[in-house]
Amino acid sequence: MDRLTAMEVFADVALRESFSATARELGLSPSGVSKLISRLETRLGVLLFKRNARQVVLTAEGRKYYDGVKHILESLAELEDSRIETSEISGHLRVMCSNSLAKHILAPRLAGFMDAYPALSLEFVQCRNDLLGSLDPGVDIAFYSAEPRSSSLIVRKILSTQHVICASPAYLSRWGEPSVPEDLERHRCLNLSTEAPCTSWPMRCSNGQMMRLQISAAITADSSDLLLSLTKAGAGIARLARFHADEEIASGSLTPILEKHNPRYEQPIYAVYHTRRYLSHRVRALLDYLSRNILTSERVLPANGDAGPCDSTQAACDRLSWAI
Asked: How many Å apart are CA 111 and CA 117, to the nearest integer?
């Protein structure tokens, strides 16, 4: 048995947790994949996967073996990259992210990327909240404001952003401006439905202590763009990413509120991608370009130097904030 082929098939099964899905991806039969894994287990003398009717899951021994295999395959991918450094990077790159991240972070920087790599084509797909902790095998790289918990993925923090609590001038004129966090209980608040059940916002009390204020959302939405439109229309008060709200604040369409009570917590934004061979040179080209061209500012920050959340509940909520 070709050991490299066996490792590649094993790594793909570990990623997809399915013999049949790996078979479809690699052009093999499900029985062929199953037999290959069985022969690998026999050679190693350990059980690599727990099998049931719906999926296969790594055992503790399988996880240890996967960590080593992943390192080997990544090293091979780097060797492949070194062979094409002087050649033109080409092919297709499928990118998953929210509309908001695509519009405000990626789109302003992609013209230069396409100029640098004219033989590359890009395809953008909307992020899926049901993929929390995983990544669609058909996607090359994703950008999320939540860190997937799957150890089969590579996760790289690329920047951080802050949030602002704001409302439209019309809403504040009609309902008044809250002066302390507790005043929000008497206002209509808007929230991302992807943050449920995290219906609380981090706040700084007058005495400087951190708290989480429970929010009873009058309207929830699974899109930051929709949340922004609702806020501009006077539907209520929202907590938005600064890069999302800055333009509207500058134009006067939105007014920041409770600024002294809004902690300067920096939310990380991550690049997430697989370890598949022959792909990393395209992924790396995009990552390196973005790293060089993401502007450092008060509101969009580089990956280092981000402050921690105000408490562990914030971290739990952030894991659900995929539609920033």
From this structure: 10
Q: Rounded distance, CA 227 to CA 167, Å?
A: 11
**Fold adopted by 91-161+266-318:** D-Maltodextrin-Binding Protein; domain 2 (3.40.190)
CB 37 within 8 A of CB 13: yes
Residue type, 189: C
State how far the alpha carbon of 70 is from the alpha carbons of 1, 138, 157, 181, in Å: 19, 19, 20, 48
Q: Residue 220: name the closest of 239, 248, 247, 244 by CA.
A: 239
The tokens for 190 are 């808007």
In the CATH scheme, what is the code of domain 163-261? 3.40.190.10
Amino acid identity, position 52 = N
The DSSP H or E segment spanning 51 is strand 49-51
Q: Which amino acid is at 202?
A: P
- The string of pLDDT tens digits covering residues 283-320 is 888 988 888 877 433 344 444 433 333 443 343 333 33
pTM of this structure? 0.62
Are the C-beta atoms of 221 and 192 separated by less than 8 Å? Answer: yes
Cα-to-chain-centroid distance, residue 64: 26
